[in-house]
Design a protein that fits this description.
The complex is a heterodimer of chains A (338) and B (251). Chain A is mostly helical and 338 residues long. Chain A has helices at residues 12-18, 28-40, 45-67, 76-91, 98-120, 125-145, 147-150, 176-198, 200-210, 212-217, 222-248, 258-271, 278-296, 301-315, 319-331. In chain A, helix 4 packs parallel to helix 6 (125-145), helix 4 (76-91) packs across helix 11 and helix 8 (176-198) packs across helix 9. Chain A is globular. Helix content of chain B is 36%, strand content 24%. Chain B has nine helices and ten strands. In chain B, a hairpin with a 2-residue loop joins strand 4 (59-64) and strand 5 (67-68). Chain B is globular and about 55 Å long. The chains are: A mainly alpha (338), B alpha/beta (251).
């Protein structure tokens, strides 16, 4: 007997849901561009590496903010935790192999995410926003005070990171290794996050974002899911921080600062949150804008960025990708027959 | 005598000086069609919140099929078979109608914690959700975002999410509230066709709905049970008419 086909399998809603996770035709494009960048702009690889790390960091934020709806201003706590994990282990000569170093960075950041998440995620809204900020400030101050381990305000420099796979040196002047290494790590983490958000778990995170109360009422262990999501996002932010420390061979307090946390939030809002690729678009837009604006008006270039953010917040809540989606929908709109 | 499906014993809840539930002894039998009525502020929604574990009682006990579930958490009670709808829509507004139901079904069948398998490959969950939407005549709207639907249909989605949990006890908090009268028949029809084995408790102000639907009515006044009986008994009870029906008729 052949299995009978479900009468509902062809319904547009079922088709859309069943095929939602499939690779879209345009999805390889950003990766091809990133690879092309390596060959076309060999002199800008330092900038490129920084950009890719920023994207990775923004992807980690998108998971908590864009999908689970956890409003946090303290994501840099995990970036810094990862960076300092790599930095302290390398500086003290305990561990300097890069790939396992990232695993350790992820583990430390995830542990901090789990611990703080268990406490913080009992709250929500503005309280949560302030508490995430406080957690980050506490970590920053701890790093400042623990001078013997962290180098305090000066940070740790000239980290002796071992060659990648025992062969490829990290050369700060010609960051070819760094660029490709970061690209591969970004790809792996991105595939992980993409898988996660299209899974039933990811769907339930979206449900929590849309209506927490209802998720309780359908029997979902809401807090457990949020804490898990927070810890996973922290792990990815930790990887971003760890790889930043490896690529630059130094760590400083800036990795834990509000500046970094706010910048990544701006990037995600600019690009469009809850859209996976918003991190890419936002990071490129932010870096390009700050580059041009600072040339145009060196003393107050951030003013332009601020104005743009106000415009986005008022008129385009879904960021640049949201505008693009609207444009596409407008182009594909059904037209009246002449 | 077998234990009732759902039972409360001397259930009390106070908010400071306000007693929202006062010694409520209540029984819901398997397959019952039971209505809970009472003036505004009588504590009807508080009672639902107590039954579903949103709030804990100050004293008293809640039993499901004879088992004491007073200290069982909200999520666990859903797993035990208690589902509810809300007086004001609590929907996943920016998701499609299908995704709204998918969330409930995925939670029930235990698919929701899975992280590495795309949601779309759980054809069983999609299939069941679509079948459920079809029974509520929502299948043609399954692709629409919930917020695009007219309010009456949104109320049906509210019901669909609860039914996706395959409850044994279904608590309906004013299912037709806010629905324009032109659309209210779709809600009433849906309630009429609920599976007969579910014990349903309905809260409503709409006396037509209550008397059409209920086989048993409990009247709640100031947090306490004022009267319980068949619709005929309640309709004929002069005290009930005085505190509630009379008011409703006037206003």
């Amino acid at each position: 007997m052949t299995p009978t086909k479900s009468p509902w399998a062809d319904h547009p809603a079922a088709v859309a849901l069943a095929g939602r996770h499939r690779l879209r035709a345009w999805e390889p494009i950003p990766w091809i561009l990133a690879l092309a960048f390596y060959f076309v702009f060999p002199t800008y690889l330092g900038f490129g590496t920084e950009l890719l790390i920023t994207i990775l960091f923004a992807v980690s934020l998108d998971l908590v903010l864009g999908y689970a709806g956890i409003v946090t201003l303290g994501q840099a706590a995990f970036f810094g935790a990862g960076a300092y994990t790599v930095g302290i282990l390398a500086k003290r000569g305990i561990w300097n192999e890069p790939i396992t170093g990232l695993v350790l960075a992820a583990a430390v950041a995830a542990a901090i995410g789990l611990g703080s998440g268990l406490v913080l995620l009992r709250t929500g809204g503005l309280t949560l926003l302030m508490l995430t900020l406080c957690t980050m400030a506490l970590l920053e101050e701890a790093a400042n005070l623990a001078h013997d381990y962290t180098g305090g305000f000066d940070g740790l420099d000239s980290l002796p990171i071992a060659p990648l796979l025992g062969r490829f040196e990290f050369n700060p002047l010609y960051p070819t290794t760094q660029y490709l290494y970061v690209l591969v790590v970004l790809f792996v983490c991105f595939v992980f996050v993409r898988t996660l958000v299209y899974s039933p778990f990811g769907q339930s995170l979206t449900g929590i974002r849309e209506n927490t109360l209802r998720m309780h009422a359908v029997g979902a262990p809401v807090r457990g899911r949020l804490v898990l999501c927070y810890a996973l996002s922290a792990a990815i932010a930790g990887v971003a921080g760890g790889i930043w420390a490896q690529a630059n061979a130094y760590v400083n307090l800036g990795t834990l600062g509000l500046d970094r946390a706010a910048t990544v939030l701006i990037i995600l809002v600019l690009g469009g949150y809850g859209r996976l690729y918003g991190a890419f678009v936002g990071a490129i837009a932010y870096m390009a804008l700050s580059h041009f604006l600072s040339k145009l008006y060196p003393t107050a270039w951030q003013l332009g960025l601020g104005l743009l953010l106000v415009v986005i917040a008022l008129f385009a809540r879904n960021g640049i990708l949201g505008i693009a989606e609207l444009g596409l929908r407008w182009l594909r709109r059904p037209r009246p027959k002449p | 005598m077998t234990a009732p499906l759902l039972e409360t014993r001397a259930l009390c809840r106070s908010f400071g000086a306000l007693t929202a539930a006062r010694d409520i002894d209540f029984r819901l039998e398997a397959g019952a069609r039971h209505a809970l009525i009472g003036p505004n502020g009588a504590g009807k929604t508080t009672f639902i919140n107590l039954l579903t574990g949103v709030i804990a009682p100050t004293s008293g006990a809640i039993l499901l099929k004879g088992r004491n579930i007073t200290s069982v958490g909200q999520a666990q009670r859903v797993k035990l078979g208690i589902a509810r709808t809300f007086q004001i829509n609590r929907l996943f507004r920016r998701l499609s109608v299908l995704e709204n139901v998918y969330l409930a079904v995925a939670e029930r069948v235990g698919a929701a914690p899975s992280m590495f398998q795309p949601a779309g490959t759980r054809r069983d969950v999609i299939e069941e959700s679509m079948r459920l939407l079809d029974t509520l005549k929502l299948a043609p709207h399954a692709s629409r975002r919930v917020w695009e639907l007219p309010y009456g249909r949104q109320r049906l989605v509210e019901l669909a999410i609860a039914l996706g949990l395959k409850p044994e006890v279904l608590l309906l908090d004013e299912p037709a509230a806010g629905v324009p009268s032109a659309e209210s028949h779709i809600i009433l029809d849906a309630i009429d066709t609920l599976p007969r084995d579910i014990g349903v408790l309905i809260i409503d102000h709409d006396m037509d709905l209550v008397f059409r639907f209920a086989e048993r009515i409990t009247v709640l006044v100031s947090g306490a049970v004022f009267a319980t009986g068949s619709p005929r008994e309640i309709g004929a009870d002069p005290n009930v008419r005085a505190v509630y029906l009379g008011q409703a008729a006037r206003g």
